[in-house]
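Lab notebook, entry 350. We have the chain sequence and a SMILES string for flavin-adenine dinucleotide, and the next step in the workflow is to get a structural model of the bound complex before anyone spends time on docking refinements. Request logged below.

Task: model protein plus flavin-adenine dinucleotide, output structure tokens.
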Amino acid sequence: MHYADTAIVFMLTVSATATIGLFRQSGQEIVQASPPAQTVYLRKVGIQTQHCSPVFHRAGRNPGIVTGYGLALAAQAIRSAFAMTEPQVASSDATNIETRIERQGDNYVINGRKWWISGAGDPRCAVYITMGKTDPNAPRHVQQSMVIIPADAPGLKVVRPLNVFGYDDAPHGHMELSFENVTVPVGNILLGEGRGFEIAQGRLGPGRIHHCMRLIGLAERALELMCRRAVARVAFGKPLAAQTVTKERIAEARCKIDMARLLTLKAAWMMDMAGNKFAQSEIAMIKVVAPSMACEVIDWAIQLYGGAGMCDDFPLAYSYTAARTLRFADGPDEVHRNAIAKMELGKYMR
Ligand SMILES: Cc1cc2nc3c(=O)[nH]c(=O)nc-3n(C[C@H](O)[C@H](O)[C@H](O)COP(=O)(O)OP(=O)(O)OC[C@H]3O[C@@H](n4cnc5c(N)ncnc54)[C@H](O)[C@@H]3O)c2cc1C
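Result returned:
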């Protein structure tokens, strides 16, 4: 599951699962329900799930979006993608985004280029949540807006797929896209003009913790593979497990995974109890800790496997690419460290 899923599908499916005591409808049942029941359901999920509320609440207020996209996503009939990153600007700073969203009468006209848009390669991807600037002269954090763009909109082109260390991640894929005078009705804007940055902030917290949970799973699996190999493989007359360096790494891996797991749990608990904003520091901390921890543990496992660790006979090489990507996707380590330091220093500044 990537950006797109954490933006919308996450809201509709994972969230519904998390609140299963309240919502037992399947996607199909939701689609077949009466329009008022659909709206109640969608609003409730949005309210129950702070993770996604900004996009979701807007969708809940806009019948067109609810029936057109929200329900189709709930029924898993379509997929979505989240289009923010641009090749020509440092996109870890979202205020740099240059794509233009210009109002012309009852429409918005979108021009720009995006890349690394995960999920855009999937034939089921029917909609892009696209970030651009509606007012480049507004204050820095209210220049941006998000619009929903149908994948088959005229002027929208998939330029090329991008590989991650040689993996194409098909059918999901990561695409470069170009938007040339792509036109959508004004109702396709999310939350309203100038709210794009706010929406990005709102979705990134839940997206990040989700990445961290998956990374802990990846590291756990790498450790299991490492242990299995260590007891079974013999070099220089004894199992690899008997080497001190192997025991050191296995012990370190166990410590680091559990430390990351507990920090992730703490962040999740704070998000649930007090909200995403309050958990900002913990979210930033796990986003730094989990990818680096996973990279280190998976790298140790690869080392223990020798040549076998580098090919696709085992999941280690592919796991490493996923973990490595997350040291900058959804915010580079450096940016999160800056944020943590700022919050920490803030306690001592008046
Ligand atoms: C597999 C994959 C999937 C992705 N999926 C999506 C997607 O679905 N949608 C989407 O919109 N984007 C997606 N991305 C893009 C990803 O979010 C960006 O690559 C990321 O935000 C970094 O932006 P950038 O590449 O422009 O790097 P830049 O902003 O150019 O940053 C490059 C480097 O500069 C350094 N740096 C930046 N700021 C600071 C700072 N303040 N202090 C110190 N150093 C700094 C960091 O080392 C950083 O890694 C994906 C990327 C990958 C690889």
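Notes for the group: The CA atoms of residues 56 and 286 lie 25 Å apart. Worth checking against the assay data. The domain at 198-346 is CATH 1.20.140.10 (Butyryl-CoA Dehydrogenase, subunit A; domain 3).
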